Amino acid sequence: MLRIWKATINSRNGLAFAIRSEQAVREEIFALLLSVPLAWLIGATAMRAVELVCAVAFVLVVELLNTAIEKLADRLTLDHDKQIGRVKDMGSAAVGVALLMAGAFWIFAIVERLGFV
């Protein structure tokens, strides 16, 4: 139980730091909070609503991992390094792919709600 408690505290601390230090994390948390009521309006079923919220939560997860990569890379060196730049770009690309996936889920759900599918 103690290990689970410590892991929970570490997770809370990491999220709190990310919220304080990264605008993108704040925006994605706002999007997640907004997605909860919107998903219940747009989702044709309860399961679809849950999927929509999870799609937005997935974007936040990828953003947190990208932020961790960027913070670690910046800790290694603040000098311009071509390889570190590529690593940061790949993290950014992962966020972009997650955003595209979430957008596709939401567009499909809207089309489904409108009765076109």
Describe this structure in words.
- The protein starts with a helix and ends with a helix.
- Helices cover 88% and strands 0% of the residues.
- It is mainly alpha-helical.
- It has helices at residues 2-21, 23-42, 46-76, 82-113.
- The chain has a single domain, classed as Helix Hairpins (Orthogonal Bundle).
- The chain contains four helices and no strands.
- It is an enzyme of class 2 (transferase).
- It catalyses: a 1,2-diacyl-sn-glycerol + ATP = a 1,2-diacyl-sn-glycero-3-phosphate + ADP + H(+).
Walk me through the topology.
Elements: H1 2-21, H2 23-42, H3 46-76, H4 82-113
Helix pairs in contact: 2-3, 3-4
